[in-house]
Amino acid sequence: MPNKIKVLMVCHGNICRSPMAEFVFKDMVQKKGLDHMFYIASAATSTEEIGNPVHPGTRKILNRLGISSEGKRAIQMTKRDYSEYDYIIAMDHWNISNIYRIIGKDVDNKVKKLLDYTGQTRDIADPWYTGDFERTYEDIREGCEALLQFICEEKRR
User: Which of 17, 59, 116, 144 is catalytic?
Assistant: First the structure.
């Protein structure tokens, strides 16, 4: 994937928020005709959901939007991902702490929360606990739009 902009979406289990962000962001990029410029994936900081499919609540939202998550299974982030990706995007502050546990120091300033790109510093609530997949989707959509705008502006410089 030479010269592609590589984005890794990260949450705790990689079955709710990060796959939602992965597929929503892929859809946005594709609709703007930029999919040839990006490689987008998602991963977990934990091992507890490894191999499991996308949560039914996330699949329901994505299906309603006409976005497939078929074949996606939870994987864990690795230390190597830090050198492989340009942007490592966490859903909340706990994810950030766990990402640092995996990668060590963020010397290249690649790790941010998704909503940081919107100018807000709040976390995206985990629908595994809240049950509110709609609210999670709204936050992710807003964050992905802001992230895409940021990347496009950064690449123009």
Answer: 17
